User: Fold this.
Amino acid sequence: MKTACFGEGAAWIPSLPSSTTVAFTQASGSQAPNVIPPTASFVANLRLNPHDTVDSAVEYIKNIVADENVHLTVGNGAMNPSVISETNCPAWERLAEAVSETWQGCIVSPYLMVQCSDNRHYGRISKHVYRFSAADLTKDERSSIHGNDDHVRVDVIKRAVEFYIRLMRKC
Assistant:
């Protein structure tokens, strides 16, 4: 689970997906506009709902396509969704307190993180893996992430440091 803070100056919260989503990317086929390709391929990039698996998604796609001439191959990077972390426990309470003390007036609530993060590796050792970005980013800053002009305001970094100091003191 990722933590959301709702309130004045709160972090941006994307629409929550209620099911597995797919984007078809890297399509290839004919090398010319007037030639019918003998074969075609594309990548299906899936964001799995926490209650789905790679296998259940592949089975669903096979049933929808319903054509034995279409071959599905699961890529090497395919992984099942992370385990949903507990929120009725002291670890969650400490995190929620640190968030509330840093961004006063916000309401702390868990929500589904649709991005992939390194935290997926920690689910094997703990039921308390909370993906939280301590950054109150503007629309411009969010659109610059992983781009040519990736930037964040200094006061955002200062508040993030304050948050993590508070959290560490609670643990």
User: Anything to note?
Assistant: The longest helix spans residues 154-170.
